[in-house]
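Input/output pair, single chain:
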Amino acid sequence: MEPWPSLPGRCVSCSGTKLEWFQFRGAGKLAAFTSIFVAPPAMAKEGFNKNNPYVVGVIELDEGTKIVARITGVNGKKPEEIRVGTPLKAEFIPAGADQKKILAFRA
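Output:
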């Protein structure tokens, strides 16, 4: 996968800012998730709301690292049908008014 532009970040364990890039193959499995029915303004502009929820999850990459990202290819209206352990593949999807590409994972 192509490297992502430099983004500010913090270590979840120590709050340190000395982070390193981690290249991964783009595959993993769903470790946890939530359907979001009350969208923040940016997501509401994309059409997400109580009638059209989106899903965010924790993905355990095949390399063992965990990452939080949007999950596509699942029905946010029916979270009972989404299964922890589902295999996922990384993809870049357009988002926001400027249609920048963001990392997501497809079921």
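The beta strands are 27-36, 54-61, 66-72, 87-95, 100-106. Residues 41-45 form the longest helix (5 residues).
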